[in-house]
Amino acid sequence: MQRSLIIDRGNTNLKVAIFENQELVGVRHLSASTYIGLKNTFSPEELLCHSCIFSSVAQVEDPILEDLKGHFCQNLHVLNDQMPIPIEIDYDRTTLGADRLAAVVGAGSLFPQEEILVIDAGTAVTYERISSQGKYLGGNISPGLEVRFSSLHHYTARLPLVHIHESDNIPQWGTNTSGAIMAGVVRGLILEMEGYIEAARQEHPEIRVLLTGGAASYFETKLKYQTFVADDLVLRGLSCILDYQIRECTE
User: Fold this and answer.
1) Binding site, residues?
2) Could you tell me which residues are annotated as the binding site for substrate?
3) Active-site positions, per UniProt (predicted)?
């Protein structure tokens, strides 16, 4: 049985998953900023995994990676723009974020031979297109909800900083400034997403739309188009890349 440790290191959060024979058996979320050592961060079960892949969007020296190198030695794989991947891409890999690449690979593994649009609703909202031939056609990047709210507050003199919760009722038209900001940002992003979906559907009516990221469940209920929520898409993609890398090294 092949057990793998999958680590997705964001700017503030650390997602850790265990896969057995490409099946997700456990996942947990940690704070990257509170890392205090390998054995204090990962469970004994996680450290018994045969292999590990580490992916990071951080631009700093990472003590987590240094400790993993000492533990997993030759069985540690660090995702970079040179690592072989199981998908053809039409994008400059030197500028492609590791999380975006992993999401694309994960989507292709879930729905092979299908036209796919992946919408990752996080700090940024990314739109990724995969063809039915398994080729990554490229993608776009847009500000996420919190970035839009923060920008309005930061770059103006009097607009307040607004936060939303899933239970909030979004008005059609704001009747005060906070309501106007909430409606403008949320409805604006919904219309943006639906615009991308509509454009993709005009080219491929059967296209599958995947939602992932921290705000995926929030937007799932608000979009007028049917979507498929894939919460662990990046982790699944990293697992596929690791499996492909291991097979490449043993052939």
Assistant:
1) 8-15, 91, 97-100, 120, 123, 177
2) 91, 97-100, 177
3) 99 (proton acceptor)
Q: Which of 3, 9, 22 is nearest to 67 (CA)?
A: 9
For residue 182, which of 166, 154, 155, 163 has the smallest C-alpha distance? 163
Sign of the torsion formed by the C-alpha atoms of 240, 241, 243 and 247: positive
Entry pTM: 0.91
Annotation says 231 is catalytic? no
Binding-site residues for ATP, in ranges, read 8-15, 123
Residue from 62, 99, 231, 243 carrying the catalytic annotation? 99
- What is the tens place of the pLDDT at every residue in 71-87? 887 899 999 999 999 99
Identify the sign of the CA torsion 166, 26, 82, 248: negative
Which domains occur in the chain, in start order?
A: 3-78 (3.30.420.40), 88-235 (3.30.420.40)
